[in-house]
């Protein structure tokens, strides 16, 4: 596309985004503290702000926990058979394990956790987050560089796949930043169209069939658009993801939007309670106009003498209006609904320290059922493109072999705490099946391949590939008359349910 065409498409997409900006601004003003000096409404209640930070931290811990492996690479269908990994697939599994370790090391050495948490804040507040994944300069600790792009700088469009694939980012940069980011860019003479000393740059990434096109355009200088840089990416560097969306909409809807009416009400109730408390503490006074008492000269201090005319009631306190109990009931209800809408009571730490292991697992399962659709969308729009983009960068560096995450050559698995919860449930069901088969006697147990069962358990429990041997001949489960058929499975089952 030409520079003028890119700016026109950006202007049209920006105009389509206008209806969302008002509600976004209100969500940010009520939840995240405004930048000092920029104004904004006075905040009287911090329930929503605290719940938003807890939800963003919980998403980071549940989906991409820092300093922990939350993904895995395994051979695809082309290298695996019905009986598990073949001998040659074992080497491929170990190579993929090494590639996953390499990627995990780069994530740990980068600012991934910091930027991901900031992107989750945008996701929770506005319903849409944007993460920029770039290749770092040679010599840095990590080959990956992450940046949480503020939603106010981005204009997004859905692609044919239904994902936010077309991204426009407008930013104002000084000349040094432009020259450092795009060396050799054709810049106009200094001072031309630069009222604040900065240049307006529009970056655009769009799908072009076999990859993603990229262009950086200089706007508003000497009355014409200039192309600063253009190129192509195998994977988009901008990863845009949403909390949820309504049919026909491009931008997401976050939990703060759903809780915004209660957030407004709680803010107003707290404001009125504070005013009522101020009246109750300082009091409101009334006096008769008797010609003696002068309210302008009255000082309410210990030992003060207040003159009054004979027969006058003098200075008397006025009963404070309002009922603190009713206000506290309304405020408690509003705060509970805010915390429920922002999932602070479901994803936060358990309030009862005496909860049993079964209760904790059931609480986690309830959270997984409640957020199943959201986690599924984040897996499709955030996690999978993120891993693919990082592997693409490392492949260019020569640190990992070419890996095609299509399920045929290699498959991507998730090992986050939420995914491990489902794996434990699958493992428990499998062990229950093996225990039932063992109870049927030797003829039934002869149909079970113990090495294949062990390999399947290792797969669903995300065990390292290096601890497994190559596939061997089937070996039935032991079954002796008079013995407990589930005795051999007892310790393993207890460890999984723990």
Written description of the protein model:
This protein is α+β, with helices and mostly antiparallel strands. The chain has a domain at 417-460. The protein has 14 helices and 14 strands. It has helices spanning 3-31, 47-63, 87-109, 112-126, 175-181, 255-282, 324-341, 344-347, 357-370, 372-397, 417-439, 442-445, 450-460, 490-497, and strands at 71-75, 80-81, 84-85, 128-135, 144-148, 154-158, 164-173, 199-207, 212-221, 224-233, 238-242, 284-287, 315-318, 410-414. A 5-stranded antiparallel sheet has the order 6-7-8-9-10. Strand 9 and strand 10 (224-233) form a beta hairpin. The radius of gyration is 31 Å and the shape is flat.
Give the overall average pLDDT.
82
Number of strands: 14
Give the DSSP E fraction (strand runs of 2 or more residues). 15-25%
Low-confidence spans? 473-498
**SS field, number of helical segments:** 14
User: Biggest sheet, in brief?
Assistant: 5 strands, antiparallel
Radius of gyration: 31 Å
What strand line-up does the widest sheet have? 6-7-8-9-10
Order of SSEs: HHEEEHHEEEEHEEEEHEEHHHHEHHHH
| Ends apart, CA distance between termini | 58 Å
The computed structural class is alpha+beta
User: Which percent bin holds the helix content?
Assistant: 40-55%
Cα shape: flat
List the helices and strands and how they pair.
Elements: H1 3-31, H2 47-63, E1 71-75, E2 80-81, E3 84-85, H3 87-109, H4 112-126, E4 128-135, E5 144-148, E6 154-158, E7 164-173, H5 175-181, E8 199-207, E9 212-221, E10 224-233, E11 238-242, H6 255-282, E12 284-287, E13 315-318, H7 324-341, H8 344-347, H9 357-370, H10 372-397, E14 410-414, H11 417-439, H12 442-445, H13 450-460, H14 490-497
Antiparallel strand pairs: 1-14, 2-3, 4-5, 4-11, 6-7, 7-8, 8-9, 9-10, 12-13
Helix pairs in contact: 1-6, 2-4, 6-7, 11-14
């Amino acid at each position: 596309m030409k520079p003028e065409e890119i700016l026109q498409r950006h202007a049209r997409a920006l105009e389509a985004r206008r209806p969302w900006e008002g509600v976004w601004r209100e969500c940010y003003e009520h939840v995240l503290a405004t930048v000092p000096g920029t104004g904004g409404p006075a905040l009287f209640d911090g329930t929503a702000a605290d719940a938003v930070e807890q939800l963003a931290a919980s998403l980071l811990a549940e989906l991409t926990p820092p300093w922990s492996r939350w993904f895995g690479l395994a051979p695809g269908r082309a290298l695996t058979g019905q009986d598990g990994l073949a001998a040659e697939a074992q080497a491929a599994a170990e190579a993929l394990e090494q590639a996953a370790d390499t990627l995990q090391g780069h994530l740990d050495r980068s600012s991934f956790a910091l930027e991901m948490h900031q992107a989750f804040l945008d996701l929770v507040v506005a319903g849409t987050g944007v993460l920029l994944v770039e290749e770092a300069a040679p010599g840095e600790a990590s080959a990956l560089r992450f940046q949480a792009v503020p939603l106010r700088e981005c204009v997004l469009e859905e692609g044919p796949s239904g994902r936010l694939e077309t991204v426009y980012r407008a930013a104002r940069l000084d000349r040094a930043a432009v020259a450092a980011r795009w060396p050799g860019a054709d810049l106009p003479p200094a001072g031309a169209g630069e009222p604040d000393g900065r240049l307006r740059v529009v970056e655009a990434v769009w799908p072009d069939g076999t990859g993603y096109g990229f262009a950086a355009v200089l706007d508003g200088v000497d009355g014409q658009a200039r192309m600063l840089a253009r190129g192509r990416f195998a994977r988009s560097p901008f990863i845009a993801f949403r909390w949820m969306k309504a049919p026909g909409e491009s931008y997401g809807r976050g939990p703060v939007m759903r809780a915004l009416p209660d957030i407004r009400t709680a803010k107003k109730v707290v404001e009125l309670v504070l005013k009522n408390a101020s009246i109750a503490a300082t009091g409101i006074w009334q006096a008769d106009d008797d010609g003696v008492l002068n309210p302008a000269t009255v000082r309410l201090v210990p030992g003060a003498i207040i003159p009054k005319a004979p027969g006058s009631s003098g200075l008397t306190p006025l009963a404070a209006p309002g009922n603190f109990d009713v206000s506290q009931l309304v405020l408690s209800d509003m705060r509970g609904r805010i915390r429920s809408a922002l999932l602070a009571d479901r994803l936060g730490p358990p309030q009862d320290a005496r909860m049993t292991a079964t209760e904790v697992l059931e609480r986690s399962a309830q959270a997984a059922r409640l957020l199943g659709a959201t986690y599924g969308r984040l897996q499709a729009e955030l996690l999978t493109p993120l891993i693919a983009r990082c592997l693409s960068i490392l492949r260019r560096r020569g640190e990992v072999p070419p890996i095609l995450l299509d399920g045929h050559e290699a498959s991507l698995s998730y090992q986050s705490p939420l995914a491990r919860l489902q794996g434990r449930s699958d493992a428990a069901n499998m062990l229950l099946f093996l225990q039932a088969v063992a109870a049927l006697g030797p003829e039934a147990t002869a149909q079970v391949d113990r090495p294949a069962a062990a390999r399947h358990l290792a797969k669903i429990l995300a065990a390292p590939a290096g601890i497994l041997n190559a596939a061997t001949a089937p070996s039935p489960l032991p079954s002796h008359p008079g013995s407990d058929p589930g005795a051999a499975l007892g310790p393993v089952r207890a460890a999984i349910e723990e």
